[in-house]
Each structure stands twice: as C-alpha cells, then as structure tokens.
Specification:
The protein folds into 2 domains: about 5-255, Type I PLP-dependent aspartate aminotransferase-like (Major domain) (Aspartate Aminotransferase, domain 2); about 255-380, Aspartate Aminotransferase, domain 1 (Alpha-Beta Complex). About 35% of the residues lie in helices and about 15% in strands. It contains 14 helices and 14 strands. The chain has helices at about 10-15, 60-75, 85-95, 110-120, 135-140, 165-170, 185-190, 225-235, 245-255, 255-275, 295-300, 315-325, 345-350, 370-380, and strands at about 5, 10, 75-80, 100-105, 125-130, 145-150, 175-180, 200, 215-220, 280-285, 310-315, 330, 340-345, 360-365. Helix 4 links the parallel strand 4 (about 100-105) and strand 5 (about 125-130). It is globular, with a radius of gyration of 21 Å.
Length: about 375
C-alpha cells in the first residue's frame, strides 16, 4: 500500500482516490479486497501468519481503512469504531477520575449529553464555554483540565474555533486538544498540523459520504500512553467497525475530495443567495465575509468552507417548521455529509433543553445542481 513515488510523496487527492494505491498483489484488482473472517488460522508452530488473530482486535480491511484515514490526516495512526459515539466514549473513558474537561456549550448534542452524564456520575468535572466568545475557551482551562474538546466549525451554529490557539491553551495546562473535524474533513482542515493531539470524525458523514455506513474514527498525532489505552478500550468493549462497513468506508474515501469540494462550492453559492433573501434572518456559514469567524476559517481551512450551514427563518419556530414541510429536493432527515441534500429542524431533534434557536434549520448540502437547491428553498420560503 505505497503512498509515495520516487519523486516525492503522493498528494492527498491521489492517496484517497487510490485507497493508498492498494492494488491487490495476488489478483491485480484495483478495488481493495474485503476480508470478512472473524478468526485467523495459525501456522504449524502455532504462530500467527499475519497481524490478525481475531476480529475484535483487528482485521486487514479495517487496518486498510485506518491507514488511509491516518494518511489523509497526517497522523501517526487511526482507530475506527462502530459509531461516532463509540469513538467519543472511548476517548473520554481515558480521562482520570475527577479530572476536568472543557468543551463548547453548543456542539453535537450526543457529545454534550455524554459529557453531562459523566459529570452527573462524578467521573469528570465539566466546563462548557461559549464558542462565539473570544477568550472563553482559554478562561475555562485549569490546572486540572485533562481534555479540551472542540468542534470547528461548531454544529449547528458553525462558529469557528481557532485550533492553534486552543492547542496552546490546552498544552499550557498539560491537557490535550481533541478536535471534532467532521464538518471540515481532512480535505479542508488539518487539525494535527495546527497543534491538535487527536482528531475525531463521525465517519458516517463525509468520510463515507453515501448515508449507508455508521462509524467513527480517532486519529492521533503520536503514539502516546492514552492512545494505547484507547486501542485497549476498543478491544475490551468490542466497538470495532465491522469489515463490510470498513470496506464501504474505503469506497467512500476514494471520492472524498471531489465530493467535499463540490459541496463546499455549492454551499457558498446557496449561502450568498440566502443572505439576501428577505425571509431569512441570518445565514450561519463561515464562508461568508459577514460571518464573525470568517477570518479564522480562511486561515485554517483550505479550498473551501464546507457543505454545512444553518439558516434562521424570520418569524420563529412555526415559520421554520412550515419551510421544512414545503421542501421537495432537500430531504427532511437527520445526519449530514451525504451526496443528497438534507434539512433538519434542530430544536425538534435535540428537544426543549437545546441551546439552538427555535427558528434554526440546518442544511447539509449535497452534490445536486445548485439551481435545483436554490429553486427548492425559494418555493419553500415563499410559503411563509
């Protein structure tokens, strides 16, 4: 699985498209093989014939997916899990009893709910900071902080957090920085190069990109004691990504760069159109010059600003729900990052305790014709 040539390393677009240039040595197949075996025979001396012994500890297809993702993130290694939450749970399980975690007050609600659960059990202490407030992250870090967790852009308000500044704040107190880069993807952002220690992706989203795989991944900058513990936890809890899903994830990675770049370009067109619409109160998208985080996003994101945005509909929750009902091309569904465009009323999904505005609709932009998406939004907004 060579990832370099005699005249230098391959560029990430090529690494992704070729799945690490993984031509099958035995058959010449250009599509990587799928290994589904749960167990592996030993030789006459009862020694393993290869690196795999039992599926819960590893598998050639799973290892291939991990190597490809680690290469795209510029990381030391990656571990894939059966869901994004399985990866998140494993990471926070490494926090020593009673130590401190810092995280955004607005973020993916599953992560927030898990951290609050740990806090309620006395496992951790927790500080939630306002990602839109300058200096709030640094002020929340203490000498007891073990992990600073950030999303950037932040789901679903798409605030932008300065990764390098967050790394400096974390490392200054002896903590690590973990970055949920699901929305940015390795196409647009390289958190490890900016000082992060661990990168997380909900592989269900852009990495797979076809709304047919549930998975999560952690990528580490270095081989640390914590990283060894994460690997051991995955073995103990049995949260390995299954081989078929790992193979489908590899398939999705091969089109990652073309998908994300088109989704980003279309998102910017839609955001600019929506910003001028009289029935839109605000467009939350870091690619807009009016976005308060645009400058930071332009520095730490390359080639686009992602395919995710949110709109605040004038009038309130009732009007936002009417827009949702009228959409025809955008599909009313949870999740993001697929080739089809999705719309979601976040307050409905998160519940009444959600910090998300009641008139917010989250849009995941797919690869459809931009004109069709604009036409759909236009007719839906005309009905309120």
């Amino acid at each position: 699985m060579a990832a370099s040539m005699s005249d230098g390393p391959l560029r990430p677009e090529t690494i992704a498209a070729h799945a690490l240039h993984a031509v099958d040595a035995e058959t010449g197949a250009v599509v990587p093989p799928l290994h589904t075996s749960t167990t592996y025979a030993r030789d006459a001396d009862y020694a393993l014939r290869g690196p795999s012994s039992y599926l819960r500890y590893g598998n050639p297809t799973v290892a291939h997916a991990e190597a490809a993702i680690a290469a795209l993130e510029g990381g030391h290694a990656a571990r894939v899990f059966g869901s994004g939450m399985a990866a998140i749970v494993s990471l926070f399980e490494t926090v020593p009893q009673g130590r401190h975690v810092v995280a955004p007050a607005v973020m993916y609600h599953g992560t927030r709910d898990w951290l609050r659960r740990l806090e309620s059990k006395g496992r951790i202490t927790l500080s939630l900071f306002d990602p839109a407030e300058a200096g709030a992250l640094a002020a929340a870090v203490t000498s007891q902080t073990d992990i600073v967790w950030i999303e950037t852009p932040v789901n679903p308000t798409w605030d932008v957090i300065n990764i390098a500044a967050a790394a400096a704040a974390a490392h200054g107190s002896g903590a690590i920085l973990a970055v949920d880069s699901t929305a940015a993807t390795p196409v647009l952002s390289q958190p490890l190069a900016l000082g992060a220690d661990i990168v997380f992706h909900a592989a269900t989203k852009y990495l797979n990109g076809h709304s047919d795989v549930l998975g999560g991944v952690l990528v580490t900058a270095a081989d640390t004691t914590r990283w060894g513990e994460i690997a051991a936890l995955r073995n103990l809890m049995g949260t390995m990504l299954a081989p078929v899903e790992a193979w489908m994830l590899i398939r999705g990675l091969r089109t990652l760069y073309v998908r994300v770049r088109q989704q980003s370009a279309t998102a910017l067109v839609l955001a600019q159109w929506l910003e001028a619409h009289p029935k839109i109160e605000a467009v939350l998208y870091p690619g807009l010059a009016s976005h308060p985080g645009h400058g930071v996003a332009a520095r730490q994101m390359a080639g686009g600003f992602g395919g995710m945005m949110s709109i605040l509909v004038r009038g309130g929750e009732a009007e936002a729900l009417r827009v949702m009902k009228r959409l025809k091309v955008f599909l009313p569904a949870t999740s993001l990052g697929g080739v089809e465009s999705l719309a979601e009323h976040r307050r409905t999904i998160e519940g009444p305790a959600s910090p998300v505005p009641a008139n917010l609709i989250r849009l995941s932009i797919g690869i459809e014709a931009p004109e069709d998406l604009i036409g759909d939004l236009d007719q839906a907004l005309a009905g309120i």
